[in-house]
Amino acid sequence: MPLLKQYQSRILENALMTTVGFFLLYVGKNLLLPVLKMVEKEVSPSTLMTTIILLLVILVMGLAYTISLLKKYKTKLLYLFGVYWNNKLQIYCPVCKNPTMYEKSSKDCDVYCVKCQKEIRLRNEENHSNIPIHEAKKIVKEKLSKN
Ligand SMILES: [Zn+2]
């Protein structure tokens, strides 16, 4: 992913988080507090505490579950020809694991990492020869379809 796009997605993520944060604060102040005050009059403090603790436990469990799901579906990278590949055949830098940029021609063996500012040559590990990107892609695609 080009650097500019990475920054754009970061800014979008931050804007989204801020909006959600303000929304939660607004809901907390204008809806939850009055409800809590009403409940306080009707329900004994110990019941209220138990309910709040139960809700917190459920919240924490939900968060843990969400994090475990996110980890599970995070793209797994395959190491082949001296670089990493995702399941969409995007090439990742072997050093920093950021997406690389390419490709000048169909015979080209090089990709470029913006972060490391380095060209990376795709190499066949078996005979140590260079391998063009489009050939490497075919082989990676076959390997991925077998998994
Ligand atoms: Zn890199």
Total of DSSP H or I helical runs spanning 4+ residues: 3
Bound molecules: zinc ion
Shape: elongated
Outline the biggest β-sheet. Answer: 3 strands, antiparallel
Instruction: Compute the number of strand runs.
Output: 5
SS-derived structural category: mainly alpha
Strand content: 5-15%
Mean pLDDT: 85
> Taking Cα atoms only, what radius of gyration do you get, to the nearest Å?
25 Å
**Span between N and C termini?**
26 Å
Helix percentage = 55-70%
Give the neighbour order of strands across the main sheet.
1-2-3
Task: Indicate how many domains the architecture comprises.
Answer: 2
Low-confidence stretches: none
Helices and strands, in N-to-C order? HHEEEEEH
Structural account:
With 147 residues, the protein is mainly alpha-helical. It folds into 2 domains: 3-73; 78-146, no CATH class. The protein contains 3 helices and 5 strands. A 3-stranded antiparallel sheet has the order 1-2-3, with no helix packed on it. Strands 4-5 form a two-stranded antiparallel sheet. A hairpin with a 4-residue loop joins strand 4 (110-113) and strand 5 (118-121). The two termini are 26 Å apart. The relative contact order is 0.09. The mean pLDDT is 85. The structure holds zinc ion. The site of zinc ion has 7 residues, from loops.
